[in-house]
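Quick one, tokens below. Sequence please?
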């Protein structure tokens, strides 16, 4: 049995908040250059063998990639022409990180201008002015990344069970969560918005079609939490019985939660998480009659 990494949120909250803003800077770089894809799939980062990556992004007559290396604690920017620049990941302000990334891109022939303000955070300090967030605990970041990769293994297996339209298992830097979403194929009512420092139009594109989503983020529990929700939420969804003692529906968030520690402490963490993912999707599937809209594997 694989041991799941342990990391109490309270022990690395300052680093978490800094890392979230760093990933937003890199994610916005991808957003500027990558061709648009529905539901904002073109802006996400992806777990790699060493951290989180933009994957290859087209630019001019070649490609470039930006990767957080959480083993060496470096941010690498590489081009298909063989050039590269590195930014050290260490305690430093968001303002300093932002300046180094922008300067490195320019030096590599990929000058980039992003919207230089965070999204989906309450107090959105412009990146160039943020000298408040500066923490970096390398060991904690490594543990968090290993949490993402472990969760990603199970989520990718669950993804293979569904043959309808589905997202990759990818990292959304707005809320700092690893997520996976299935779609019924039917359009949804316009999303009302409400995320802090995020225009309603962003949410409407993300939720343009009926969906069931799940993921993991470093909040909602002592060591983070797994979540699942449906949009629009069908009648009876929040009362659906999830066959796990630690799973519950959070009326404030409007989603089911399963604490990370409940998974990691179990005798079979992969099986517990798989049960949560399948049960919460079954709630959306049956209550919203998804079976009439999409096929799935036997």
């Amino acid at each position: 049995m694989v041991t799941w990494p342990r990391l109490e949120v309270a022990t690395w909250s300052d680093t978490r908040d800094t890392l979230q803003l760093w990933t937003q800077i890199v994610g916005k770089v991808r957003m500027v250059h990558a061709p648009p894809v529905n539901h904002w799939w073109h802006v996400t980062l992806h777990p790699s063998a060493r951290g989180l990556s933009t994957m290859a992004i087209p630019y001019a007559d070649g490609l470039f990639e930006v990767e957080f290396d959480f083993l060496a604690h470096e941010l690498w920017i590489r081009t298909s022409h063989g050039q590269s620049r590195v930014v050290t990941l260490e305690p430093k302000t968001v303002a300093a990180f932002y300046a180094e990334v922008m300067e490195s891109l320019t030096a590599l022939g990929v000058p980039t201008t992003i919207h230089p303000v965070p999204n989906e955070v309450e107090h959105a300090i412009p990146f160039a002015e943020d000298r408040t967030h500066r923490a970096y605990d390398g060991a904690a970041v490594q543990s968090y990344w290993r949490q993402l990769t472990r969760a990603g293994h199970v989520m990718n297996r669950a993804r293979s069970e569904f043959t309808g339209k589905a997202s990759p298992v990818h990292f959304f830097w707005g809320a700092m969560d690893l997520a996976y979403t299935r779609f019924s194929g039917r359009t949804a009512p316009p999303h009302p918005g409400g995320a802090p420092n995020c225009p309603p139009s962003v949410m409407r594109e993300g939720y343009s079609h009926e969906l069931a989503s799940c993921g993991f983020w470093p909040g909602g529990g002592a060591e983070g939490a797994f979540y699942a929700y449906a949009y629009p939420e069908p009648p009876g969804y929040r009362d659906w019985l999830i066959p796990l003692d630690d799973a519950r529906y959070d009326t404030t968030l409007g989603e089911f939660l399963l604490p990370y520690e409940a998974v990691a402490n179990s005798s079979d963490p992969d099986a517990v998480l798989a049960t949560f993912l399948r049960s919460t999707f079954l709630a959306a599937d049956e209550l919203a009659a998804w079976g009439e809209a999409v096929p799935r594997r036997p």
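The mean pLDDT is 96. The longest strand covers residues 177-187.
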